[in-house]
Amino acid sequence: MCGPVGSGAASGQPPHESSKHSLIGPPPFPCASKVRRPRLDHNAISSDPARDGSRSGYPASAGPATSVDSEPGGRTGWDGENTVTHKIDLLRSLEQEMGILARRMRRVATERARAVSPDLQVAGFFVLTHLSSQGPARSAEVVDVLGIDKGAVSRQVQHLVELGLVARTPDPQDRRATILSLTEYGEQRLAEVAIQRRASIDERLSDWNDDELTTFVDALARYNRSLS
Questions:
Q1: pLDDT, tens only, 174-226
Q2: Which side of the chain, N or C, has fewer Cβ within a 10 Å radius?
């Protein structure tokens, strides 16, 4: 005879035995053909059954449901499974959106480099923006910050010098090294491109209010700090 789950009278157990089941895990199901457990995302379940009982079908991070997760009337909730699945979905969405952003930024960087000079490559544009934001720097510092091969940086710097965008001067503290800095022409070209870029962004985000834009900038800054 099938009865409500957790009911001592229906299960043939004394009332105190039924309440004990709700404290240590899901109560027995008297009628398995009518009561079905939710299907789990096995990607979210630990592969170590000896550690957390994943062979029982519980989410790895949650373990067997306890009285904390129990709902009124002795029904045990599956909040642990829902939480794990929701977090996985959020992380997958983040990866997808960041992948779209990365592809778009590569294209935008190419467009901005060509806007500065038709012959300027993306790596050279990154050198320019670093010198613009951080000021004069040694070549070795540019290599460390941008993560570009030393030989590639040397070639890009030579090209930037030939374009009149960067100047090289001897380092007063180390005669073997040189200091890189933007020329007046380099500063002018970057400023002009920046004005065009901001006007384009402002147009595309015209339906964003200031609060939405502030929230996005703050969240993106926090994301970059977390990954640094």
A1: 878 889 999 999 999 999 999 999 999 999 999 999 999 999 999 999 999 99
A2: C
Q: Name residue 88's beta-bridge partners.
A: none
User: How far apart are alpha carbons 140 and 177 in whole angstroms?
Assistant: 9
- Residue 58's Cβ-side half-sphere holds a number of Cα atoms within 13 Å equal to 22
What is the rounded distance in angstroms from the CA atom of residue 218 to the CA atom of residue 105? 19
Reported as a single tens digit per residue, the pLDDT across 117-142 is 999 999 999 999 999 999 999 988 99
Q: How far is CA 149 from CA 102, 145, 146, 178, in A?
A: 21, 11, 9, 17
Instruction: Find all residues with CB under 8 Å of 64, minimum gap 6, and list them.
Output: 24, 25, 26, 53, 56, 58
Q: Choose which CATH entry (3.40.50.2020, 1.25.40.10, 1.10.730.10, 1.10.10.10) describes domain 117-205.
A: 1.10.10.10
| Distance, CA of 62 to CA of 84 (rounded, Å) | 8
Output the pTM of the full model: 0.58
Please list, in sequence order, all residues whose beta carbon lies within 8 angstroms of the beta carbon of residue 168, skipping any fewer than 6 positions away. 157, 161, 178, 179, 180
